Amino acid sequence: MADLVSRVRAICTAFPGVTEKLSHGTPLWSARKGFVQIWPDGHHDNTFPHLWCAAPPGVQESLIGRDSRRYFRPPYVGHRGWVGMRLDGDLDWDDVEELCELAYRTVTPAARG
Fold first, then answer.
1. d(CA 108, CA 3)
2. What are phi and psi of 26, to 5 degrees?
3. Which of 23, 26, 32, 84 is disulfide-compatible with 74, CB 3.0–4.6 A?
4. What's the chain's Rg over C-alpha atoms?
5. For position 85, what pLDDT does the model report?
6. Is the pLDDT of residue 99 over 90?
7. Is the keyword DNA-binding assigned to this protein (predicted)?
8. What is the pTM of this model?
9. Phi/psi class of residue 24: alpha, beta or left (left: φ > 0; alpha: ψ in -120 to 50)?
10. Is 110 helix (H, G, I), strand (E, B) or coil?
11. Phi first, then psi: what are they for 11, rounded to 5°?
């Protein structure tokens, strides 16, 4: 699980202005606002390792519609459009990077352009 955290940390801290803090016992990366949180040991009913990522309107539904095994609506932040991504099974790290970048751009207006 430490490898998962290290890889996601490397992705998120490569973006300008990102800080990391613990939130509810797990890493949360922020750029003025939180944009990615990792749950390496799972959280509540989701006992598998996963991310919660900020996303613009419509992305959550699109990703879940495309692959409901990999993507899900996370508790607490799902109603705001955040999307959950499982980090177990056959994981494509390019997909993880793309989702983290999208999350960063979602909370950082200057990065959207």
1. 27
2. -130, 155
3. 84
4. 13
5. 96
6. yes
7. yes
8. 0.90
9. left
10. helix
11. -65, -50
* Residues 15, 78: Cα–Cα separation, whole Å: 23
Best CA proximity match to 100, nearest among 14, 25, 32? 14
β-strand pairing of 71-72 with 83-86: antiparallel
Distance between CA atoms of residues 33 and 71, nearest Å: 22
d(CA 110, CA 19): 17
pLDDT tens per residue across span 26-60: 899 999 899 999 988 767 676 789 999 999 999 99
**64, two tokens:** 């879940």
Burial code of 1-17, b = ≥16 C-beta within 10 A, e = fewer?
Answer: eeebeebbbebbeebee
Q: Give dist(CA 20, CA 26) in Å, integer.
A: 10
Residue at token pair 């890889």: 7
